[in-house]
Amino acid sequence: MTHDGLEVRNLSVSLADAKILHDISFFIAPGEIVALLGPSGCGKSTLLKAITGLVSHQTGSMIFDAKDLTGVPVHKRQIGLMFQSHALFPHRNVEENLAFGLEMQGATKARIHSRIADLLELVGLCGFEKRKVETLSGGEAQRVALARSLAPHPKLLLLDEPYNSLDRSMRRHLTDEVRQILKTLKISAIHVTHDSDEASRMADRMLIMEKGQIVRQGTFQEMISNPEVTIVADLIGLETIWEPTIENLEGSYSAATPWGGRVIHEPISSTISLLLRPEKIRITPDGFPVVIENRVLQAGEWVLSCRGEDNFIVAVKTDEQYEIGSQISLMVDPNDIEILSGTLPY
Amino acid sequence: MSYAKRKWNKNYKENRNSGSSIFTLTSITVIGIFFSVFYFFPLGKLLRYGLSASTLIDVYGSTAIWKIIWFTFWQATLSTLLSLLLGTFVANTVTRLRFRGQSFLRVLSTIPFVLPTVVVSSAFISVNKLFRLDGTIFSLEASALGIIMAHAFFNTAIVVRTVGGWWSQLKDEPEHAARTLGSGPVKAFMHVTLPRLKPALLASASLTFLFSFTSFGVILLLGGLRKSTIETEIWRYATQRTDIKTAAALGIAQLVIVILMLIINGNLRARHATNELGAGFRPHAKPLNARPHMLRITSGVFLVISFFGLPLLLLFERSIKTTTGYSFAYYKQIFTGNQSERFKVFATKEAIWNSITWALIAMFVATVLGYFAANLMTHSSKRLSKTADTLLLLPLGTSGVLIGFGILIALNATPVDFRSKWWIVPLAQAMIGVGFVARIVSTAIRGIDPQLKDAAKILGASNNQVWRNIDLPIISRSLVAGAAFSFAIAIGEFGATAFLTRPQRPTIPTTIFNLLGRPGAETFGMAMALSVILAAVTGVSIAILDRTGSVISRDT
Fold it and tell me: B320: which of A146, A230, B410, B498 is 20 to 30 A away, CA to CA?
C-alpha cells in the first residue's frame, strides 16, 4: 500500500468554541510509523479524530495520497482507527467484526472469508472466527481490533493509546508485534501514547504535543541527546528538571543552582528550566550535601532520589548501595547543566 | 480475571440480604394472602367459568370473535411500530443532541406515560372536534387510526425513556469504528447503532405491545361501538349483556395470550441482554454539538410539540370553549354542580373526592406491599427471589379489566363477600400498582453498590448503621417514586374501576366516560374540563412526590 504520505498544514480545530488544536503541521512519509506523545488533555485524540474526519477542522488542510481531505466524509478517507477501548461491535462475533469493513466495500463472501483467515493468521488468532467478543481477553480483543482496522486495507492506521488496558509485558509484546505487522504491510501509522518506552519501541519518529500544539518533532535519539523543550525532556523521562531563579547580569543571565550560577549568554525570551542528568553528577566528600529519601534499581544501577537545602530534589545514579536516610554530597560542573525552554506541565 | 470478579460478586450477594427471618416470613404471609385473595382466587374463578367445552366452542366458533381478536392483534402491532419509530427519533433528539430547551422537550415527551387513558382519549376527541375530522378518513373517533395514534401517544414515552436512557449510555466508539471502516452515516446507524439498541428496542416494543393489546379506556372511548378488542368485549359481555360465560371465555384467551407474550419477552430479553452497559460504563459525556444537526433538531422539536403538546393544549381549549365563548363555566359546574337537574346524575364533586381518597389508599397499600415484595424479590434465597419475581410480573401483564372482572365474580360470597364494599376499588387499584412499586424498589435495592457498603463497614459502621446510612436513603427515594407512580396509576385506573365501582360511587374516569356517553355540548365540555382536572391532579401529585424525577425520566 504505497501512497504519497500525509501532510497536515496549519490545522486548527475548535470544539464548542474552545480551541483544541492550534496550527498543527507535520508530514508522515509512506510506510513511516510516528509516535504522538503528549500529556493527557493536550489534544492527541482530537488530532486523530480530525485526521479521520470524526471532528471537522476549521482552518488548514490535510493532503493525503495527493488529495485534499477537506470535505471528504469519514468513510471515504481510507484511514483506519484503532481505539483505546478497542470498540469491537458487541453484537457481532470475531468473524463478523472483521467482515464489517469488507462488507461496506461490497466485497464478495468468498473474498471476505479468505481475507478473515489471512488476518487472523496475521494476528495469531487462528480459529477465533466464531468467538464472541465478550469472551476475549484484553490482548486478544486488541489483536482483533487491529485485524479489523487492517481488513479494508487502510493506507494509514491511527492507534489511539491502544494498549492502555493491558499490563506492561503484554504491552511490550504487542507493540513489537504490531510494528512488525505494519512494517511488513508497509502501512504508515500514527501511534498515540504517553509512554515514551512504548513510543520508542513502536515508532521511527516522534511528534511531541503540548496544549494543542506540536512542540517538537524528531527521532528518539535526537530528543534524548538534545531535548530543547522542557515538556519533551519530561515526556521522554529525563531527570532532573527544575525551574531556577534567574539573576540578570550585565549582558547575560545567571540561573541559580546549588553549584553556583549557570551562566546563560543567549537572550531569554520566555521561561526556562534546567536539566541535570544523573550521569553528570559525581558523589564526592566535599559537594552539595543531600539526604537520600528513596532509591530504585534501574537496569542494574541504583537511582537515588535525594533532597538538599531549599527542598532541592535531584536524581543520582550509582553502582554502590546507599541506605535510605544516609547523607551524601554531590558535585556538578554548572556547565553540564542543560537549558530547556518552557516550564513543566505540573 | 473477569471470572474471579464475578464469582466474588456472587458470593457477596449471597450474604448480602441482612433481613431477618421474621421480616421475610411477614413479607411472605402478607404478599401471599393479598395475592391469593385479590389475584389468584378471582382469576381461578374466571377460569372455572370460562373453561367449559360448550362455552369455548360457542365463543370461538363465531367469526365475529375472531374478527375482534384479529383487530386486537393488528392494532397493537401497528401501535407498537409507530411508537418505536417515533420514540427512536425523539430519543435521538432529546438525548443525543444538545440544545436549549432540550430538557423541556424530554419532559413533554415522557409526560403521557403517567397520563390516565381517559385524559388522552379526551384529548384526541378534542383534536377530532376542533379539526372536524369526523366522517373523514382521518377521523380519530370510531376508527383504528385514533386508537393507534392514542396508543403511540402513550407508548412513545416508554420508548423514549427506555431507548433514550440506554442510548445516552452507549459510547460512540463503535459508530466511529464503523465510519472509519468505510460505512456512511446511514449504514453505520443500521449496522451498528440499531443492533446495539436492540435490547432497549425489544424491551420497549414488548411493553408497548402488551399495553396496546390490553388497552381498555382508549378503545372504549375512541373505538366507539364499531371498533372493539378482546378487552372491551369482555367488559361488554360482562356488564351490558350479562353473559358472564362468554366474558370469561374471552378472558381466558386474553390471559393465555398475555402470558405467552410475557414468556416470549422474557426469552428475547435474556437472549439479547448484552454486557455492554456492564462494568466500566460511564454516561455518555458529550452529546453531539447541535450546529451541524439543525434539521434533525427542528423536525424533532416540531414533532414533540405538535404530537405531544398539541392534543393536551386542545383538550384545555375545548374545556373552556362554551356555547357563549371562552369561560370556565364547565369547571364551575363541576365544583358547584347541579344548577340544572340534568347534571344531577353526574356527581362530579363526589367523583373527585372519591378518586383522590381511593388513590391515596391504593397508593399506601401498593407501596407497603411493594416494599415487602421487593424484599422478597431481592432475597438471598434464589428460589424465593425467583418466585417473587415471577409472581409480581403477573399483575403487570394482567389487565385491569380481568382483575376487576375476576373480583366481581369471585368475591361475592361469605367469607369474601367484598365486591360491593367501597374499599374493593382502591384494593384492586393497589393490586395493579404493586407490581410497579416492587419493580422500582427492587431495582434500587439491587443497584446498591456492594462496595459502598464495604466502604461504610471499613469506616466503622455496624450492619445496622450501614442499613440506615446506605440502604435506607437509596431505598426510600425509590419508595417515594413508587408511591407517586402507584398514585398516578390508581387515580387514572379505568378497567378494574369500571367493573367494581357502583354508579352512586363514581370516580373521575368513570364520570368522564359517562359524560362522553351523553350527547350535547355541555356534557362534552364538562368531560373535557374533568379530564383537565384529572391530568392536573396526576401531574401535581407526581411533581410533589417524585422530586427525584425518577418516574418521569427513569430508565427502565
Answer: B498
Q: Is B100 on the interface with A (CB under 8 A)?
A: no
Instruction: Identify the pLDDT of residue B84.
Output: 95
Q: Does residue A173 sit in the same domain as residue A104?
A: yes
pLDDT at site B20? 65
* CB contact burial B324-361 (16+ within 10 A = b; e otherwise): eeeeebbbebbeebeeeeebeebbbeebbebbbebbbb
Q: For cell 366481581, what's the residue?
A: B408
Report CB contact under 8 Å: B183, A100: yes
pLDDT of residue B15 exceeding 60:
no
Residues A217 and A306 in one domain: no
Assess whether A173 and A303 both reside in one domain.
no
Q: pLDDT tens digits for A199-241?
A: 999 999 999 998 899 999 999 999 999 998 898 999 888 888 9
Residue B339 contacts by C-beta under 8 Å, 6 or more apart in sequence? Answer: B333
| Residue of chain A whose Cα is closest to the Cα of B276 | A90
Task: Find the closest chain B residue to A56 by CA distance.
Answer: B292
**Do A223 and A247 sit in the same domain of this protein?**
no
Please say whether the beta carbons of A122 and A147 come within 8 A: yes
B-chain residues within 8 Å CB-CB of A154?
180
Q: Which domains does chain B have, with CATH numbers?
A: 27-48+320-556 (1.10.3720.10), 74-227+278-311 (1.10.3720.10)
Q: State pLDDT tens for residues B307-323.
A: 888 888 888 888 888 88
Residue to substitute from A100, A135, A137, interface B, most B β-carbons within 10 A = A100
Q: What contacts A4, CB < 8 A, 6 or more positions away?
A: A30, A63, A65, A66
Nearest CA in chain B to A146: B177
Q: Chain B within 8 Å of A291 (Cβ-Cβ)?
A: no
ipTM (interface predicted TM): 0.72
CA distance A137 to A117: 20
- Pairs of CB atoms within 8 A across A/B: 82
Q: Which of residues 27-86 of A touch B (CB under 8 A)?
A: 49, 52-54, 73-81, 83, 85
- Do A173 and A251 reside in the same domain of the chain? no
pLDDT digits 0-9 by tens, B371-406: 999 988 888 778 888 888 877 777 777 888 889 988
CB-closest option in B173, B181, B274 to A101: B181
Same-domain check for residues A67 and A123: yes
Q: How does residue A244 score in pLDDT terms, banded at 50, 70 and 90?
A: confident
Q: What is the DSSP letter of A16?
A: T
- Which domain range does residue A205 map to? 6-235
Count up the domains in chain A and report the number: 2
Cα B508 to Cα B514: distance, rounded to the nearest angstrom:
10
Show residues of chain B in contact with A151, CB under 8 Å.
Answer: 181
Dihedral angle of Cα B239, B245, B248, B249, to the nearest 10 degrees = -130
How high is the pLDDT of residue A269?
Answer: 64
Q: Give φ, ψ of A79 to 5 degrees.
A: -115, 125
